[in-house]
Design goal:
The structure holds 2 protein chains of 2 kinds.
Chain A lengths: L4 E6 L2 H7 L3 E6 L4 H12 L9 E4 L2 E3 L10 E5 L6
Parallel strand pairs in A: 1-5
Antiparallel strand pairs in A: 1-2, 3-4, 3-5
Chain B lengths: L1 E4 L5 H8 L6 E8 L3 E2 L2 E2 L2 E6 L1 H18 L4 E7 L1 E4 L3 E9 L2 H18 L2 E6 L5 E3 L4 H4 L5 H4 L1 H4 L5 H10 L1 E5 L5 H11 L3 E5 L24 H12 L4 E5 L8 H5 L4 E4 L4 H14 L3 E7 L2 E7 L7 H4 L5 H8 L8 H20 L9 E6 L4 E6 L13 H5 L24 H5 L3 E2 L1 H5 L5 E6 L3 E3 L9 E4 L3 H9 L3 E4 L4 H13 L4 E4 L6 E3 L5
Parallel strand pairs in B: 1-6, 11-12, 11-14, 12-13, 14-15, 19-24, 20-22, 20-23, 23-24
Antiparallel strand pairs in B: 2-8, 3-4, 5-7, 5-9, 6-8, 9-10, 15-16, 16-17, 17-18, 21-25
Classes of the chains: A alpha+beta, B alpha/beta.
């Protein structure tokens, strides 16, 4: 088992409404954004499928299997709709 | 530059910031809030942004457009907050010396915003209902969902979801965005190759347009890689297309081919062909190479660990010498011939990624002739002791210095325990008529395709006509003494001469170019 890590999560748009909060600090054993989202869907009743989401770590797009580090700012990005 | 604001956008003020005396064009795009979407009335839009990241991404989008379209100034501003119908949501302005670059850059910015700017909008309908655009079930089955885009390809048993995944994970480099590179890149993009890089330092010329199908008359003068990349992004927004406005050179070739799944040689010169071939071999990347001469084309797949490389194929001829007789730059070319060969390159590339390629694909030269409709596969020669492919890959990778064999002296100074025989090294295969005459008496063997005939009056004295496919008969004739092979276009004769040379015939040659005495029956009128 790897040691649990502290992460800062922010939610936007549809995910913010589903999560009921716009920011959340968690301590988790999830190693990647994919594992973290799976954990959140259970605890926060998020209904957007993971296949629709992208993730930003520390304000940059990253892969869903990137290794998370303690202190990372993680934002799941629902399908964008700018313009 | 890029800005995010919760205040109304003053488009006139933004436009004034673009003014510069050398600009001859200004293209502006405005995105407005409209009163309907997908058949539903809309009363207002609520924009939400992931602020700090949106600023970073927006700035990156604007500066990428300025880099890819040199000379353009890009300004962009995006709204957040609650916007009524008719309000300006996004404003993009591009100033440039000429209109074409400005149109391209402006288009690129709005498409990239829609693809990656972390901004969302909530649509409000009369009566209070509201929904986040693109986050409902409608979006999951949207018209550009991968499962729809590739549906007719994924349903091939040879592809399937697993194969489509392999394509999405693939990284392919296309060197040369011309007659071969345009159709090859087009089909690789539409097939879903995840990352496609287009390398070409050239600009679009009017004389390119008859065969380089990604370019339009408006593109003349613009960088080929940039125009092609923009065109392919529009064709398939699901894949990543990168423009690299430079040719492959000894300085950049290692970095260009590193980590690629497959590399395509769509160039028209031997120097680059040898360079790419050697860099791919050292990097362990398959190379799919094609060349066209008028109505005919030749396709070779070079696998990094297989014997029978480009140096074996052109045994004894350095790139510099080959340029003189077989360089295609500026040569006459039948448009569909480069089209067909470019698509064959795309097909071989997809087969390699999908695991559908056979060992034979990497060991044969495939010849196609659009004038007589013939196609032929010839086993590629292997030169024992070839300094490039006759050694294990590991020992090659350890060789210091640039990853290519110098183009002059194709067999390089690299020490080989079993060098080519002096005969193979010093005896060129494809020769001009004058060089052939200097070799002394040679028997002429004219290779004929179906429908071709040898005109006895204008043919060299004693010339024997043999069907191209009759390899045993050609072997028999070659065994009788020094022989020169000729054909109607010069490609088959060169390929067969190389083959027989590899079989051990020391005195077999090919005439560079066509033998006019070989006629096609169809030209009777």
């Amino acid at each position: 088992m790897t040691a649990p890590r502290q992460l800062h999560i922010k939610f936007f748009a549809a995910l913010r409404e589903q999560a009921g909060v716009s920011a959340l600090d968690v301590t988790t054993s999830a190693r990647t954004p994919a594992e973290l989202y799976a954990e959140l869907t259970a605890t926060r009743r998020l209904t957007l499928p993971a296949s629709l989401l992208r993730v930003a770590i520390n304000d940059r797009y990253a892969a869903m299997d990137t290794a998370l580090q303690t202190g990372d700012r993680v934002v799941f990005i629902p399908p964008v709709a700018g313009g | 530059m890029f800005e995010l604001t919760d205040q109304p956008i003053d488009s006139a003020a933004w436009r004034a910031r673009l003014e510069r005396p050398d600009a001859g064009a200004c293209v502006v795009f405005e995105g407005w809030v409209r009163n309907h979407h997908a058949g539903q009335p809309v009363t207002k839009l609520e924009y939400e942004a992931f602020d700090q990241m949106a600023r970073l991404e927006g700035e990156a989008i604007a500066s990428e457009a300025e880099q890819e379209h040199p000379g353009c100034t890009v300004l962009c501003v995006h709204r957040t907050g609650s916007l009524p119908v008719g309000e300006l949501a996004v404003w993009i302005g591009v100033a440039s010396a000429h209109r074409h670059a400005a149109f391209l850059a402006c288009r690129q910015v709005i498409e990239e915003i829609k693809r990656r700017l972390p901004v969302w909008k909530k649509e409000h309908h009369p009566g209070g209902a509201a929904e986040w655009v693109n986050c409902t079930t409608e979006a999951t089955t949207g018209r550009l969902a991968p499962e729809n885009y590739y549906a007719r390809q994924v349903s091939l048993p040879e592809v399937g979801a697993a194969g489509q995944g392999k394509l999405a994970a693939a990284s392919v480099l296309v060197v040369g965005v011309g007659g071969l590179g345009c159709p090859a890149a087009l089909y690789l993009a539409t097939s879903g190759v995840g990352r496609l890089t287009l390398a070409d330092a050239g600009k679009v010329e009017v004389s390119n347009l008859h065969r380089q199908v990604l370019f339009t008359a408006d593109d003349v003068g613009a960088a080929k890689s940039t125009v092609a990349a923009a065109r392919l992004r529009a064709q398939n927004p699901l894949v990543k297309i990168e423009a690299h406005a430079a040719d492959a050179t000894p300085a950049n070739v290692r970095a260009l081919v590193a980590g690629r799944t497959v590399v395509l040689d769509c160039t028209d010169n031997f120097a680059t062909r040898f360079l790419l071939h050697d860099a791919c071999r050292f990097a362990g990347v398959p190379l799919v190479s094609a060349a066209v001469y008028r109505f005919e084309g030749e396709l070779n797949v070079f696998l990094p660990n297989a014997a029978g490389c480009l140096h074996c194929l052109w045994a004894g001829r350095a790139a510099g010498e080959l340029e003189a007789v077989a360089n295609c730059a500026g040569a006459p070319v039948f448009g569909p011939a480069v089209g067909v060969l470019g698509l064959m390159q795309a097909a071989e590339t997809l087969k390699l990624i999908l695991g559908l390629a056979t060992a034979g694909d990497g060991q044969t030269t495939r010849l196609v002739n659009l004038l007589d409709g013939s196609a032929q596969s010839i086993e590629r020669p292997t030169q024992p002791g070839c300094p490039v492919c006759g050694h294990p890959l590991a020992s090659l990778a350890a060789v210091p210095g640039p990853a290519h064999v110098p183009v002059t002296g194709a067999h390089s100074s690299r020490v080989s325990p079993e060098p080519f025989s002096p005969n193979t090294l010093k005896d060129p295969i494809v020769l001009e008529a004058g060089e052939l005459a200097a070799l002394g008496p040679l028997q002429t063997v004219a290779l004929l395709e179906a429908g071709e005939s040898l005109d006895a009056d204008s043919a060299p004295a004693g010339a024997v006509a043999v069907p191209t496919h009759d390899l045993p008969r050609i072997r028999e004739l070659a065994a009788q003494g020094p022989t020169v092979l000729v054909c109607r276009h010069g490609l088959r004769s060169a390929a067969l001469a190389r083959l027989f040379r590899a079989e051990g015939f020391g005195k077999i040659y090919a005439l560079a170019g066509a033998l006019p005495a070989i006629r096609a029956r169809t030209t009777a009128n």
